[in-house]
Amino acid sequence: MIAKNQKQQERCPPTPIPVKAGHTRFEWLKLVATLAIPVAIGVFTIMNNFQQMNLSKSQFENQLRIANDNRQNDIRVAEEARVNDLRIAQKDREKDLQMADNQQKQAVLIEYQNFLAELLLKEGIRLNGSNSEAARFVARFKTLTGFSQLNPERKAFLFKSLYEVKLITNNDEFESAIVSLASADLTNIILGLPRDSDVLPGFKGPCFTNLHLSGADLTNASFRGVRFSNITFANAVLDNADFGYTEDAGKFIDFQGSSLQSANFFNANYKVAYYIQFQGAKFNNARLMNFICVRCGFTSTIMQEANMTNARFTSCQFILTKMLNCIMVDIFIKNSTFDETDLTGCDMRGAIFEYTTFSEKTQLIGADMSLIELRHCDFSNTNLSGCNMTRAILNGTSFLNSNLSGCVGLNEWQLRQTKSLAGSTLPNGTLVRAK
Ligand SMILES: *[C@@H]1O[C@H](CO)[C@@H](O)[C@H](O)[C@H]1NC(C)=O
Ligand SMILES: *[C@@H]1O[C@H](CO)[C@@H](O)[C@H](O)[C@H]1NC(C)=O
Ligand SMILES: *[C@@H]1O[C@H](CO)[C@@H](O)[C@H](O)[C@H]1NC(C)=O
Ligand SMILES: *[C@@H]1O[C@H](CO)[C@@H](O)[C@H](O)[C@H]1NC(C)=O
Ligand SMILES: *[C@@H]1O[C@H](CO)[C@@H](O)[C@H](O)[C@H]1NC(C)=O
Ligand SMILES: *[C@@H]1O[C@H](CO)[C@@H](O)[C@H](O)[C@H]1NC(C)=O
Ligand SMILES: *[C@@H]1O[C@H](CO)[C@@H](O)[C@H](O)[C@H]1NC(C)=O
Ligand SMILES: *[C@@H]1O[C@H](CO)[C@@H](O)[C@H](O)[C@H]1NC(C)=O
Ligand SMILES: *[C@@H]1O[C@H](CO)[C@@H](O)[C@H](O)[C@H]1NC(C)=O
Ligand SMILES: *[C@@H]1O[C@H](CO)[C@@H](O)[C@H](O)[C@H]1NC(C)=O
């Protein structure tokens, strides 16, 4: 009966029964009670159904969402699988390409070796047979092509072979190598220890004798720990090359006109050769920390912002050198010449200069010379305006006709230790009477 009623209630809302006048109070109560139960049940049922409807609706939505999620998931999984397959295929392809490239480079090397062997057998070990000029030309041409096609490891192998047969060493007859490596692509070649690697104390690297590398492109090359006996790098490109811990063991080292931007000479030690020439080289941003160089010519070189911290230069020439903003902290320079040198803005804190002359328009404008020690140096005719000489020791040093105007940190005691101030402009602008 409830179920039936329920069904009816579902279809239509209960119509209000008109209340007729004249019924007794009891009849009213009875009627209300009779009606109230199904109405209450009906209302409850509607509410319940509503809730159920809501529930089933959210269930449906939930299922839809799950289905959708599953679909999305399937798509994602499929996509991931596809991408993964692609990646694997790509990797395989790269591996294949790498292997092919490797084989091709190996083939280039073998082909070159065969060519050279044949040529040497035909034209003699010095390529000085009947056809020597043609032989040298062909050898150079083939060598340049070979180097340009090889990776750094094979370049090093080929280089050492050519060095062993003395084709790339100085030949007194030509004042060059038999096979000139000018413009050869020797970039990234490692002929010593790997770049920037640690060097154990007492390490003795291989020694290259009479190597002739004029004009070669040795960008990023490493000579770390190598020893040189007679070597020429004239006009070579040596940007970013590593000469750390190199030593000289022969008569001359020639870096004239080379490009040594950002090159590294950390702990390099050149003091045996009587001729060490860097004339015209470009050293911008070079790392020359702890570099020891004796009898070295830096005339007309450009070494802006080079870091020479703790370097030691003895009997060196810095004529017309551009050393703007160099870091010369704790540097030790002895018996050397600075002439028309631009040392503007250099950081010379704690440096020691001994028996060194700074002459003819050398500029030290704004240089930080605090804690510097000048022992019997000569700063005649130099421009030191705006420098910092806080706690500088100027013992026996001459400042003849020099401009010290605007220098900070100079006191009477320091000035009294100088050898001469005649004709100079003092920090406060006072001009000292010339002698
Ligand atoms: C080629 O050079 C070698 C080694 O310097 C020498 O012994 C030889 O006589 C030279 N040959 C010719 C044809 O000049
Ligand atoms: C040299 O090495 C640097 C990284 O140190 C690299 O960016 C540059 O391409 C290299 N140059 C050559 C010519 O290989
Ligand atoms: C070094 O080069 C000079 C000049 O070319 C030469 O006289 C000398 O013999 C060479 N030293 C060695 C060890 O070959
Ligand atoms: C110069 O080299 C020194 C010693 O290696 C280092 O402490 C300093 O930071 C360097 N200065 C610059 C500006 O690179
Ligand atoms: C000082 O350097 C010059 C070359 O600039 C050299 O001839 C001379 O022997 C050196 N003197 C000393 C004491 O080292
Ligand atoms: C020295 O440097 C200062 C500051 O740059 C400049 O004003 C002056 O003309 C320069 N020359 C001389 C000879 O002092
Ligand atoms: C010295 O340098 C100052 C600038 O710092 C300049 O005004 C002055 O003229 C210079 N003195 C001489 C003698 O050149
Ligand atoms: C001069 O050098 C001293 C010591 O290095 C430093 O404390 C001071 O700040 C410097 N003065 C100027 C003006 O740079
Ligand atoms: C400066 O040199 C004189 C002799 O030339 C010497 O007596 C004195 O002790 C030296 N002073 C310093 C601080 O080196
Ligand atoms: C300039 O400085 C010098 C040395 O410190 C001093 O003897 C002189 O009296 C000063 N001149 C002026 C005008 O302050």
Automatic annotation (TrEMBL):
Lineage of the native species?
Eukaryota, Metazoa, Spiralia, Gnathifera, Rotifera
Going by the UniProt record, its keywords in alphabetical order are:
Membrane, Transmembrane, Transmembrane helix
Q: Which organism is it from?
A: Didymodactylos carnosus
State the name under which the record lists this protein: Pentapeptide repeat-containing protein
Q: Which ranges does the record mark as transmembrane?
A: 28-47
